């Protein structure tokens, strides 16, 4: 088969989600996700009995209810839908010599599957890989690097490869966040405090050189400047702790409990996610909302992720040109 020659492939990569709204699909996704040594660094002999004996049989059933609360009517998870939209928005900004596609680290439509599919149709001079994690972490962004490198370790042709490790301080990204906050304030009014909730990571990763927390703090600093606010107006916290290891704090649930005693309203945005997902739509918008109310607060508003905002495609195209 004759392949079409293209100068460039741009591959957007996000975490992934269950392929279907079922216990079996959730179990497969969890198995792939929690088997990654970048995600859980315990020895396999210690971790696998816990994973296969406790977590997969029990947690998948519990998560089904949570996913039902956020699942789209078209049969897709929000993360899958919005990642597809983001690839489409970026493609509009690129020239005819660039192919834009998307993949996930876990579940369906993996990096390996997409690259095999695309390389069967095209010959590329270069590959630009953009992990859709604004702030770099070894538990997320580095996973993308691992999987791309592993794929090409078995290939006979390797294009020129560029990795966009993060865009935590990119001016257009900060502007997108600021515009989201301003739009929310225009429509709903401004709450007493703005809370930035990032996904947490184990402290051990930071101790070993992971730059994630520093990049989260940088995003907060730049967003404050863009909004004309002080750090006391814009708080930062970390959500979604998993397991017994020490994770980066302050924990979002603890901060929300404290704010419920001193404020009547808070706005929460999650700048570590570019697509709404279980952690934003269920954990923040539902769980943390109820937590805030139950501890005396009156109103918690969740500010959605960038999602299908066309400006995000323009921002990604700008990053590609700069690199």
Tell me about this structure.
The chain has 323 residues and is α/β, with parallel strands linked by helices. Among the domains are: 48 residues, no CATH class; 133 residues, Rossmann fold (3-Layer(aba) Sandwich), CATH 3.40.50.1400. It contains eleven helices and eight strands. The longest helix is centred in the N-terminal third of the chain and has 27 residues. The radius of gyration is 20 Å and the shape is globular. The relative contact order is 0.15.
Major β-sheet profile: 4 strands, parallel
In terms of DSSP E residues, the strand content is 15-25%
**CATH fold-level name of the domain at 171-303:** Rossmann fold
Question: Mind telling me the C-alpha Rg?
Answer: 20 Å
Low-confidence stretches: none
- Report, as a whole number of angstroms, the end-to-end distance: 32 Å
Number of distinct helices: 11
Helix content: 40-55%
DSSP summary, beta strand count: 8
Shape: globular
* Mean of residue pLDDT values: 96
Q: What descriptors fit this protein?
A:
4-stranded parallel β-sheet, single chain, 323 residues, globular, 11 helices, 48% helix, 17% strand, alpha/beta, 8 strands, Rossmann fold
């Amino acid at each position: 088969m004759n392949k079409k020659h293209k100068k460039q492939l741009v591959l957007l990569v996000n975490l992934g989600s269950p392929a279907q709204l079922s216990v079996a699909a959730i179990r497969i996704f969890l198995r792939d996700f929690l088997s990654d040594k970048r995600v859980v660094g315990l020895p396999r002999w210690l971790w696998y009995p816990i994973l296969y004996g406790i977590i997969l049989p029990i947690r998948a059933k519990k998560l089904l209810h949570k996913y039902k609360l956020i699942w789209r009517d078209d049969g897709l998870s929000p993360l899958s839908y919005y990642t597809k939209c983001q690839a489409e928005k970026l493609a509009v900004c690129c020239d005819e010599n660039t192919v834009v596609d998307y993949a996930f680290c876990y579940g369906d439509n993996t990096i390996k599957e997409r690259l095999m599919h695309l390389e069967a149709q095209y010959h590329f001079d270069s590959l630009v890989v953009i992990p859709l994690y604004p702030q770099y972490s070894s538990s997320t962004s580095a996973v993308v690097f691992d999987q791309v490198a592993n794929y090409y370790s078995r290939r006979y042709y390797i294009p020129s490869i560029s990795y966009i490790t993060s865009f935590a301080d990119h001016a257009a990204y900060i502007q997108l966040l600021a515009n989201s906050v301003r739009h929310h304030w225009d429509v709903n009014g401004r709450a007493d405090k703005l809370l930035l909730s990032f996904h947490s990571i184990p402290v051990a990763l930071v101790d070993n050189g992971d730059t994630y927390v520093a990049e989260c703090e940088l995003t907060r600093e730049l967003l404050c400047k863009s909004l004309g606010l002080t750090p006391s107006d814009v708080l930062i916290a970390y959500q979604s702790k998993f397991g017994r290891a020490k994770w980066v704090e302050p924990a979002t649930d603890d901060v929300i409990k404290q704010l419920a005693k001193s404020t009547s309203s808070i706005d929460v945005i999650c700048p570590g996610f570019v697509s709404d997902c279980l952690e934003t739509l269920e954990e923040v918008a539902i769980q943390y909302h109820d937590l805030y109310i139950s501890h005396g607060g009156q109103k918690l508003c969740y500010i959605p992720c960038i999602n299908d905002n066309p400006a995000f495609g323009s921002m990604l195209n700008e990053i590609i040109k700069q690199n």
